[in-house]
Amino acid sequence: MYFNIKNIYLSSITRYRKEVFDIYINTCYNNLEIRKKKEVEKTIKENINQNLKDAGCSHQLIEEIIELYDTGKKEKIKEILSVHRKKILDNEHKAQKQIDCLDFFLYQMEKEDKKKWVKKL
Q: Residues 77, 68: contact at Cβ < 8 Å?
């Protein structure tokens, strides 16, 4: 009789320990999954941040876009980035016109120098 009670007692302790262990393992697994998700999210945000820096976005604009990303407002992000892209492209066109003006001026100077050189001959 004592042996049966002891076995029942030990088996109930073993079951309890197993349940506690299972809860512990599940908690650890869930915490690991949460950490993995946070790490992936952190990596995504770091990539977004670096990409926007490389694109010449201001710190304020980067923060705004990351905040919009966190709230899932991707259409608003596309809208803001399209405006920023247009500004960059406008500046590029302006710079190209400035280069064209300098090239024309240099061409005119070379042309004048050739005329003077030919006159001297």
A: yes
- Helical spans, DSSP H, in the chain: 2-54, 59-71, 74-120
User: Going residue by residue through the chain (121 aa), what tens digit of pLDDT does each one get?
Assistant: 444 544 554 455 566 666 666 676 677 667 777 777 777 778 888 898 999 999 889 999 999 999 999 899 999 999 999 999 999 999 999 999 999 999 999 999 988 877 776 666 5
Q: Which DSSP letter does residue 5 get?
A: H
Q: How many residues does the chain have?
A: 121
Cβ atoms within 10 Å of 65's Cβ, excluding its own = 21
Look-up of token digits 């990303």 = 69
What residue type is assigned to position 76 of the chain?
K
3-state per-residue secondary structure call for 88-119:
HHHHHHHHHHHHHHHHHHHHHHHHHHHHHHHH
Domain boundaries, the chain: 1-54, 74-121
Structural tokens at position 92: 């590029």
